[in-house]
Amino acid sequence: MILLSQQIRQEIDEIIKMINSNSEKIAQILLKINAVTLNPSQPYRYASGILSPVYTDCRMVISFPKERKIVRDGYIEMIKEAGDFDVIAGTSTAGIPHAAFIAEKMGLPMVYVRGRGKMKDHGKGKLIEGVVKKGDKVAIIEDLISTAESSLDTATTLREAGCKVTHVFAITTYGMAKSVQNLNENKLKLKNLTSFEETVKMAEKLKMISEDEKQIVLEWTKDTAGWGKKMGYE
Question: Which residues contact residue 222 at a Cβ distance below 8 angstroms, ignoring those fewer than 6 apart?
Fold first, then answer.
């Protein structure tokens, strides 16, 4: 894993100012604050048991005010381009802070949606925290799209409440075939600020990984379960 020195962080700051592509800018931010860390030589072991050369934690964004603002404004630009929305909904829990920042700036109501397996066993047992009305057009805010199952969970709950849900907005996506299939089958359009592929390519440009390491890392999204064995780690 490569942890960035203060000097390198400052250098990335200067590069970010000169970049016109918002996707590249967000990719650099994720690398700069270690929201995305790459370690192809010593892969991470996920709770599911699979090995991965990448660890993504977009929750890191909320601790960096300047970078957080850039991400928030990027979300808002995507949302406005996609149409008019009545409510901003955060997925629980990663989407909640970003939804709050966005809703505050846009002057819109905000809710967050619990996972369908996490319904409260006390009080009213609600899945939706906050207020939505039948017919509300709701924008779903996610931070990272892997299989998109949490987004589908959120969309299903909102649709059952009578809301119109057409879009999911995220900071980044792994671009897995499973997520594309899930979103298409559930008639959801994904808008993301950057992607895993873009971030990995940016890491190579910044000389954080080599060309060979880039290819090893990119192989992971093609077969996440079999990647460890294929690369000789298992």
Answer: none
CA dist., res. 10 & res. 178, Å (int): 37
* One-character DSSP codes across 49-75: S-EESEEE-GGGGGG-HHHHHHHHHHH
- The answer to whether 192 touches 169, Cβ cutoff 8 Å, is yes
Query: Please, which residues have CB within 8 angstroms of residue 8's CB and are 6 or more apart in sequence?
Result: none
Instruction: Put the strands of the sheet holding 87-91 in their side by side order.
Output: 128-129, 110-113, 87-91, 137-141, 164-170, 189-192
Model confidence at 123, pLDDT cuts 50, 70, 90, reads very low
Instruction: Find the range with the poorest average confidence among 5-9, 15-19, 184-188.
Output: 15-19
Which secondary-structure segment (H or E) carries 199?
A: helix 196-205
- Bridge partners for 36 per DSSP: 56
Helix (H, G, I), strand (E, B) or coil at 139: strand
Residue in the structure block whose two tokens are 């192809």: 40
Prior bond to 93 cis, omega within 30?
A: yes
pTM above 0.90, yes or no: no
**Strands 110-113 vs 87-91: parallel, antiparallel or unpaired:** parallel
* HSE of 110, CA atoms in CB hemisphere, 13 A: 18
Least confident range of 39-48, 81-90, 178-187: 39-48
**Residue 157, phi then psi, degrees to nearest 5:** -60, -45
For β-strands 128-129 and 137-141, DSSP reports them as unpaired
